[in-house]
Design a protein that fits this description.
The complex is a heterodimer of chains A (10) and B (212). By secondary structure, chain A is mostly loops. Helices cover 0% and strands 0% of the residues of chain A. Classes of the chains: A little secondary structure (10), B mainly alpha (212).
Chain lengths: 10, 212
Amino acid sequence: AMSFEGHDEL
Amino acid sequence: MNIFRLTGDLSHLAAIIILLLKIWKSRSCAGISGKSQILFAIVFTTRYLDLLSTFISLYNSCMKVIYIGCAYATVYMIYMKFRATYDGNHDSFRVEFLVVPVGGLAVLINHDFSFMEILWTFSIYLESVAILPQLFMISKTGEAETITTHYLFCLGLYRALYIFNWVWRFYFEGFFDLIAIVAGVVQTILYCDFFYLYVTKVLKGKKLSLPA
């Protein structure tokens, strides 16, 4: 399953 | 953080500042698509809402604030301060043909069906096509000022560097974000034709003009 951790790129 | 990502971010920043300076110094936004700039302002606004919810790093937050601030400053210059110089007749791309499908796609294909995540996905998809009104405007008038081509080159370079960044992150961190990668590749492909003209004309000291 996809664990979504947020986005750190701009 | 790797060298590709850092230079990509700096290239993006350079593009934004080149455009602002071009408008400010010449007191004119001739040849610039206000529609593309509105789309970029929407892109940054919908993507960086996490400024209010998540802290990643000082670098990350500062860049987000600068990108958003510059995007709105650019829109303000085009539609308010130097409105008289805005070439609206040639800026005739129908943005609803981008925003509506992109909105639909963001609802259908995303990492997580939540408000913030759908807005992030929307911004990623929208960014990949936001330059189209600008490229359309250039194809319509058949030419672009050299400073405008430097802006476009930096913007395209930023996307190309991000692709190298993703290759790096895949090999060294096992990280990949399919939505960002596919949208980023699409966006980079849109610049290929322009890159060719930039290298064959602008870098050889000629003005960018298209054959009639």
